[in-house]
TrEMBL record:
One of its GO terms (molecular function) is protein histidine kinase activity. Gene3D superfamilies: Histidine kinase CheA-like, homodimeric domain (1.10.287.560), Histidine kinase-like ATPase, C-terminal domain (3.30.565.10), HPT domain (1.20.120.160), SH3 Domains (2.30.30.40). It catalyses: ATP + protein L-histidine = ADP + protein N-phospho-L-histidine. Its EC number is 2.7.13.3. InterPro entries: Bact_Chemotaxis_CheA, CheA-like_dim, CheA-like_homodim_sf, CheW-like_dom_sf, CheW-lke_dom, HATPase_C_sf, HATPase_dom, His_kinase_dom. This is Chemotaxis protein CheA. Residues 1-105 form the HPt domain. Residues 400-542 form the CheW-like domain. SUPFAM superfamilies: ATPase domain of HSP90 chaperone/DNA topoisomerase II/histidine kinase, CheW-like, Histidine-containing phosphotransfer domain, HPT domain, Homodimeric domain of signal transducing histidine kinase. The modification Phosphohistidine is found at H48.
Length: 544
């Protein structure tokens, strides 16, 4: 396994060699057309980027020579230095030296900068008059001129998407072959299927690894964004970022980009108070915003926290009652977690006024839907006067998901692990009928429990979710899922195993059934429906 430093170095070398080739090409073109402003600007940009990248990774010689060349082209752009034959020769020599330094970053002694050449660069940079330059006595810098190709290539994301889909198909066939090999007592088939399993697993992880990018590619855009929003809102905000090196699937990062931006805007516009209000409340005048990423088993967790005023639970209840999402009586007795779930209802907004960054009627439901679409989880926690934390739990891959297999009424189902909190077995006497639902004490928390067979299959008018007589046997297998700050226990007939699955979308007209996010094939060839936990939770709440 490569270290992060080795990966960064390889990426730097690949980009730097591209810059080197481009510089040679552009300077050759400039020699024929020295007045081409577009080419001059591009050369200047390449040298500036190379200087910054080299300095960031600690290659100071490359940074220093890039800086000298950048300065020389700045003088040429400003008409303070002519693009003479002597100057062109020194510039080419300088670029050749850059090429050698880049190629030999692991062996600096093999490409020590030539002190004659460095003096010429200094003369070009420091002298504003051509008459002061004496370059005719100089020996030309000797470069190896050997042609080398980079060890890294760039590949379009859509090609990796296609490759991952093919791997998913291969995994389905692999599982079927494994199942057949268990039924047929043949040593050769068992050996081949075992080898196939190892190869496909390694192929799967290799393709998934190729799609990973540092989360810092997104995080590092936020210091400027936070500064701009804070200035517009007349607030002072300090941003702390942790975990930029955590890696995540590039497509997942792309999907959550707008969601994270929305949450950051909300935190500054709605959460963090103005300096005067903060000081009056005994807080520092500068608000704190933290953006943290970490790994949690097979998932990536992103936390956005602010130390602002927190969420006004009474106000949320009031708006929910006004929008007829809940009755006034029911709202009084709701736990905080249920109150917070209203924030994710479509169009739910408590903004009093429209500003450049908030109050445009785009609520947190947009964020929720984006995270739901990739099988992620969004949680919110808030304390009045202390602040709010949003937690995104994201899968590392979209195509392959960890799932729990189970059976209801002789039909196989799968449920994504990311939505699964725990699995428990309970005696039927531990379930209590309250109104039209069943509840149970699970892990010290009162949790609503439903028999999944009744929820999925009973005609709507005959559905009795709180009727214990429908249950089979004494021991009940319960899968506890969570969505939108709500916990729900699903009673199933049989529990099987955890397994990585490849989810395929349902074809028409089955794709209109909201309770299922797709299907997968088991090793036996049986079709297995994949439950959509957000849809199941919403369906239960609507029916209740």
């Amino acid at each position: 396994m490569k270290s992060r430093e080795q990966e960064y170095k390889e990426i730097f070398i690949a980009e730097a060699l591209e810059y080197y080739d481009a510089l040679n090409r552009h300077i050759s073109d400039l020699e024929r057309n020295p007045q081409d402003e577009r080419l001059l600007a591009e050369v200047f940009r390449l040298l500036h980027n190379l200087k910054a990248n080299a300095k960031a990774i600690g290659y100071l010689q490359i940074s220093d020579i890039s800086h000298k060349l950048e300065t020389a082209f700045s003088l040429i752009r400003n008409k303070e230095l002519s693009f003479s034959d002597e100057v062109v020769m020194v510039l080419f020599d300088g670029v050749d030296m850059l090429g050698d330094l880049i190629t030999n970053v692991d062996n600096p002694s093999a490409s020590e900068p030539d002190p004659v050449l460095l003096r010429n660069l200094d003369i070009i940079v420091d002298s504003l008059s051509d008459s002061a330059i004496e370059l005719s006595k100089v020996q030309k810098y000797s470069s190896s001129k050997s042609l080398t190709l980079s060890d890294l290539i760039y590949i379009q994301i859509k090609k990796l998407d296609h490759l991952l889909n093919l791997v998913g198909e291969l995994m389905i066939d692999r599982d079927q072959i494994l199942a057949i090999s268990r039924e047929i007592n043949n040593d050769d088939l068992k050996n081949v299927s075992s080898h196939l399993y190892r190869i496909t697993e390694e192929l799967q992880y290799s393709v998934m690894d190729a799609r990973l990018v540092n989360i810092g590619t997104l995080f590092n855009k936020f210091p400027r964004i936070v500064r701009d929003i804070a200035v517009a809102e007349k607030k002072e905000v300090n941003l702390e970022m942790v975990g930029q090196n955590i890696q995540i699937d590039r497509n997942i990062l792309q999907i959550i980009t707008d969601s994270l931006l929305h949450l950051v805007r909300n935190a500054i516009t709605h959460g963090i108070e103005t300096p005067a209000v903060r000081e009056k409340a005994g807080k520092s005048s500068t608000g704190s915003l933290s953006l943290k990423a970490r790994n949690d088993r097979d998932n990536v967790v992103i936390e956005l926290s602010d130390d602002g005023k927190g969420i006004d639970f009474k106000k949320v209840k009031k708006v929910a009652v006004q929008k007829e999402l809940v009755s006034a009586d029911a709202a009084e007795n709701l736990p905080d977690s249920e109150v917070l779930s209203f924030l994710f209802e479509p169009g739910f907004s408590m903004a009093k006024e429209v500003t450049e960054y908030s109050g445009r009627g785009v609520g947190l439901d947009v964020v929720k839907n984006a995270i739901d679409s990739i099988g992620g989880l969004l949680k919110i926690d808030s304390k009045v006067g202390e602040g709010t934390t949003f937690t995104m739990q994201l899968p590392t891959s979209i195509a392959v998901k960890g799932a729990l297999l189970f059976e209801v009424d002789q039909i196989f189902y799968a449920i994504p692990l990311i939505h699964t909190e725990l699995v428990v077995a309970m005696n039927v006497n531990e379930l209590h009928e309250v109104g039209d639902v069943m509840v149970a004490d699970i892990g010290g928390e009162t949790t609503t429990v439903v028999y999944l067979n009744e929820l999925l299959n009973a005609p709507e008018g005959e559905m009795k979710l709180g009727d214990k007589t429908k249950l089979k046997g004494i021991e009940q297998n319960i899968i506890v899922v969570s969505y939108n700050n709500r916990r729900l226990g699903l009673i199933v007939d049989k529990l099987y195993r955890q397994q990585d699955i490849v989810v395929k979308p349902l074809s028409r007209p089955l794709d209109k059934i909201e309770l299922y996010s797709g299907v997968t094939l088991l090793g036996t060839g049986r079709v297995c429906l994949v439950l959509d936990v957000p849809a199941v939770t919403r369906y239960f709440i609507n029916n209740r």
